[in-house]
Amino acid sequence: MPKKNTRKYVFKANKKQDDGDISDSLMSPCLQISQDIELKDIPSNGEEYLLKVMKERQNYSTVTTCNRDFSKFARNQSCFVKELPHAKAPESLKPTIEWQNIQVADFSKVRMYISKLISNRSLWPRDVINIEIDPDNIAAWMNLFENKDPKLSCVLGLHHALLDHGLEILIEMLDKVKPGSTINYKTGQWIYAFLACTRQPLLSDTISILRNLARKCAEIRSHLNTEDVSSREAAAPLNIFICLVARYFRQYDLAD
Question: pTM value?
Answer without folding.
Answer: 0.69
